[in-house]
Amino acid sequence: MSEKKSRILVVDDAVDILEVIKMRLELLGYHVDAVSDPLEALEKFEDGERYDLLLTDQKMDGLTGTELMEKCREIDNTLQTIIFTAFGTIEQAVEAVKKGAYSYVSKPIDHNDLSVKIAQAIEKRSLLNRMYHLEKIIGNQFRFVNMIGNSPAMQKVFSKIAQVATTESTIAIYGESGTGKELAARAIHLHSNRADAPFIATNCAAIPETLLEDELFGHIKGSFTGASGAKEGLFRTANRGTLFLDEVGEMSEAMQAKLLRVIETGEIKPIGSDKVIKVDVRLIVATKRNLKELVEKNKFREDLYYRIHVIPVYLPPLRERKEDIIPLFQHFMKKYSGRAGKKIVRVEQAVVERLMNYNWPGNVRELENMVEYLVAMCQDEVITEDLLPETTRDPAAFSQTTLSMPLRPLREVRDEFTKEYLINLFRHTKGNVSQAAQIAGYYRADFYKLFQKYDLDPKTFKIPPGTKKTQKAGQDLEL
Ligand SMILES: Nc1ncnc2c1ncn2[C@@H]1O[C@H](COP(=O)(O)OP(=O)(O)OP(=O)(O)O)[C@@H](O)[C@H]1O
Ligand SMILES: [Mg+2]
After folding, report:
1. Which atom, in ligand 1's list, is nearest to the CA of 184?
2. Ligand 1 contact, 175 CB (< 6 A)
3. Which helix (H) or strand (E) holds 174?
4. Residue extents of the structural domains in the chain
5. CA neighbours within 13 Å on the CB side: how many for 448?
6. Protein residue with least CA distance to atom 25, ligand 1
7. CATH topology for 152-316?
8. pLDDT number for residue 89
9. Selection from 303, 209, 192 nearest residue 244 by Cα
10. Looking at domain 319-478, does it have CATH number 3.30.450.20?
């Protein structure tokens, strides 16, 4: 999408002045709303409308400009304000600046002076917002920028993220549990034109159906027993930013219908309200389920599926990108040993082998949890094999996904089995195709067709170069 217009709200009970200002500012390329009643202006903010700048007359019925500014800043604390003052009321204007207004302009308005001040105030707003969000990122220990992935599969994901981030399209992220779906969603937001605005995440499966509507759309005061105040709802909190809906496949039919409406109209209706509110939100959804399959089984609305499956991003399971294991391990080691104030310098070769041979059903999250555990357990400077949890030795973990499934079509299960078999085989031959073909009892050419059908790349099963570099030949991994 092209760069967004800055939004200005003009408030003056002199309607003729209002019209002139609106017209001039629109000619300068701003999005301008104009109202003659300060209470109506406040209502806009309360309804979730957001502006970069409030231009308001000081002397009005209902609320003074300064009072309006203070109330609006309670809702949006980086909002900038310029106050118009009539001749002889400069003192009030100075007072307004002390209370947080960016500046004031005296009437009759000098439009050149006004347009310079507007540009500066908007610049300040944008800087403040950027700073505010950077602080949030830093507070979150750079979680978003720290997305590790050397494997070709992850490199593909990164370049897709970079390509699609600046579009306004809905993105559907698919991947098993713990593969980094939320992290990818944050990365998309950070690379988008919305990076200055909020990124709001929620998990649809974790919230009971009745509460999910309230969570997403909010309610008005008194809309149900116990609703003593109004609630904004996440769509409004995320206004002009990104809303990430995790586990979207778990939404009830009723909620699916409501989500579809928002996507189609760009409007929400808080519970108990008969007023619709425009929202400007970029949607990213994620699921570990196969949505297409859910559609076929009539468990997910087809129309909604096509609305959200606009740009799919697939996060591969960790067992299919083994060369990411060691870099991720090192990354988490640094994070957790730093946090615990421990100096860990080396990892035994046997540990590296176990990590590389393990199936990682819980993907990156499981690896991260294991590192946290290892750091806690490690008593000196070396991670030794005896510290590893027994589960990493468990070959059964490998076939768990296939065996624990209820009865399903043979073709589906056979495909899954074949893929796991091939992964296991490549792991055994360390990516050697001839040897693998021989063991599988295939001619080399046929064997190529077979593993390509499953999107497997034998190269990814070779000992990763990152490991070699940091490892003494056939020895321990230096950290
Ligand atoms: N590529 C990566 N680089 C660094 N850390 C990662 C990466 N992928 C995932 N993580 C970390 O692993 C953990 C799990 O990731 P995340 O929550 O994004 O996964 P998820 O796919 O949303 O999981 P779930 O399906 O359970 O919601 C997080 O702590 C995240 O920071
Ligand atoms: Mg998640």
Report:
1. 18
2. yes
3. strand 171-175
4. 7-130, 152-316, 319-478
5. 3
6. 177
7. Rossmann fold (3.40.50)
8. 76
9. 192
10. no
Please write the tens of the pLDDT for every residue from 321-342.
999 999 999 999 999 999 999 9
The answer for residues whose C-beta is within 8 angstroms of residue 374's C-beta and 6 or more apart is 383, 387, 388
Q: Which amino acid is at 31?
A: H
- Does the beta carbon of 202 lie inside 6 Å of ligand 1? no
**CATH 3.30.565.10 is held by the domain 7-130:** no
User: Count of H helices and E strands in the chain?
Assistant: 20, 15
Q: What's the half-sphere exposure (Cβ side, CA atoms, 13 Å) at 128?
A: 14
User: What is the pTM for the complete model shown?
Assistant: 0.62
Please indicate whether the domains covering 152-316 and 319-478 agree at the CATH topology level: no
Q: Which residue of 183, 287, 325 sits with most ligand 1 atoms within 8 Å of its CB, as the best mutation to test the pocket?
A: 183
Across 310-460, where does the E strand assignment appear?
311-315, 346-347, 382-383
259-311 per-position pLDDT tens digit: 999 999 999 999 999 999 999 999 999 999 999 999 999 999 999 999 999 99
